[in-house]
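Side project, low priority. Logging it here so it doesn't get lost.
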Amino acid sequence: MPKPAAVVILNNTPLVALWVLDRLDLLRDLYGEVSIPAAVRDEFLAVERDAREAALVGAPWIKTVTLRQPRRALVYTGLDEGEAEVLALADEVGGLVVMDERKGRRYAKRLGLPLTGTLGILLFAKESGLILSVADALTVLQAAGLWLDASVIAEALRLSGEAA
């Protein structure tokens, strides 16, 4: 996966996943700087606020961005506010959407937006030599309660060369 030239816009689930792995640095190392809309920041800080706020302060490459046209997010019906703002921001400025939620990914594909998710980041990190094992990261994420479809896990392990 080549390093995108445009903006990288994260939704909450990939942000939480990398925080759980204590690897927010992967975002810096892979993309330089990433953006999160205000709604994603609010979702991220809704749980374990002090620790997560400290993580964001310690990760200045994660920039909170305000939508130029906030009403644009209203067109994405059936999505939570964070997902809708990610898509609206991507529509405004272009860039790579990093989202795991199925419904939001369908919208991104229909819009023709470049798209990846948590597993895409982990695969890119392994390919770049920043992590040793996608499987180990998945074990930690699943133990923390992140649900991942078995077929998606199998494909990620196959692509990483870690399939059993």
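Brief comment: The chain has one domain: 8-160.
Revisit when time allows.
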